[in-house]
Amino acid sequence: MFHRIRRRVNEPSEAQRRFFELSARLQDQVPLGVGGPPAEPHHSEPAAVVDDFLPPELRVPSHDQLDGRMMPWAQPLVLDGEMVACAACGAYREWLILSTRDQIWLRCRAGHQQQEMRLDTAWYNRSAGPADATHATFEDCLRHLGH
Fold first, then answer.
1. Dmax of the chain from CA atoms?
2. Is the dihedral of CA 101, 102, 103, 107 positive or negative?
3. pLDDT at 108
4. In this structure, what DSSP letter does residue 4 have?
5. Taking the CB of residue 137, how many other CB atoms lie within 10 A of it?
6. Which superkingdom is the protein from (predicted)?
7. Where are the alpha helices (DSSP H) in the chain?
8. Which DSSP category does 122 fall into?
9. Where are any strands of DSSP class E within the chain?
10. Which tens digits make up the pLDDT trace of 112-141?
11. Count helices and strands in the chain by DSSP H and E runs
12. How large is the average pLDDT for residues 3-32?
């Protein structure tokens, strides 16, 4: 019985034999260039350079061109299991979170600002959505966000 199993494993099946015969017959019928080295491209004239960058009115300044970014944060801010409150008035919701010069600042509705050392720019980038507007001054941005 073991002798028969070994013989079957070593012998090609009928389907394998037909495949080998067919591939041997078709080997001479392969078109030129198929399976060979790729042909060198013809160098006629350089392609025209197309400026596909956004038009100036649609461009957004990069992070290094901005003095800072800010986003609203309506819900309470909990860091290390502790709810953050304004040191001056005790407000604990409706923050504006400002990111400037690798520092994070919190601004309450009353206009008090405090630096938050437990947050960093990486947290801000993960938490902030896409910018919906850019403003020339800090006050313009405050007005835009309703503060």
1. 92
2. positive
3. 95
4. H
5. 9
6. Bacteria
7. 2-10, 14-26, 121-127, 138-144
8. H
9. 69-73, 78-79, 82-83, 95-100, 103-107, 113-115
10. 999 999 999 999 989 998 888 888 888 998
11. 4, 6
12. 71
